[in-house]
Automatic annotation (TrEMBL):
Keywords from the UniProt entry: Membrane, Transmembrane, Transmembrane helix
Entry-linked InterPro entries: LexA/Signal_pep-like_sf, Peptidase_S26B
Localization of this protein: Membrane
Name of the protein: Conserved Archaeal protein
GO biological process, one term: signal peptide processing
MF GO annotations: peptidase activity
Domain of life: Archaea
Organism this protein belongs to: Sulfolobus acidocaldarius (strain ATCC 33909 / DSM 639 / JCM 8929 / NBRC 15157 / NCIMB 11770)
GO cellular component: membrane
Bilayer-crossing regions: none
Length: 137
């Protein structure tokens, strides 16, 4: 067995341990509002919503019942105002287009914060399509 094979096996084991321990969870990306950070079909990882600041990407359940993954652009007391990073499809904050209340998302409605390492968002291209496919069945 080559060293590269051992490294791949160790990475896969690490991913399984992290995912099944409940420390980190996954979410699949549908849509283009977060382009270029995420593209349709990306799989990303998120952790519990603690220490959220402007610029962090959070996951919340919108007022229309869908899950949204957007960037925090303003914090006002106990709520967050979010927006997709693609200014072509998302030129207004979510509280102006009805995805969240006018005052923003209550902190209690945030499900998670997208995992980052040194400011880089962790995601895997195309792997999210598997989850999207099974959720549509």
């Amino acid at each position: 067995m080559k060293k590269s094979d051992v490294a791949i096996v160790l990475v896969v084991i690490l991913i399984y341990v992290v995912l099944f321990s409940g420390i980190v969870q996954t979410a699949s990306i549908e849509g283009v509002s977060m382009y270029p950070v995420f593209q349709n079909g990306f799989l990303t990882f998120y952790v519990s919503p603690s220490d959220i600041s402007v610029g962090n990407i959070v996951i919340y359940k919108s007022t229309v019942g869908t899950y949204v993954i957007h960037q925090v652009i303003h914090i006002d007391g106990n709520s967050y105002v979010t927006k997709g990073v693609d200014n072509i499809t998302n030129y207004l904050p979510d509280n102006k287009i009805g995805l969240e209340p006018q005052s923003g998302i209550p902190k209690t409605a945030v499900i998670g914060k997208v995992a980052e390492v040194n400011g880089f968002v962790i995601s895997i291209p195309y792997l999210g399509y598997i989850s999207i496919l099974f959720s549509s069945l």
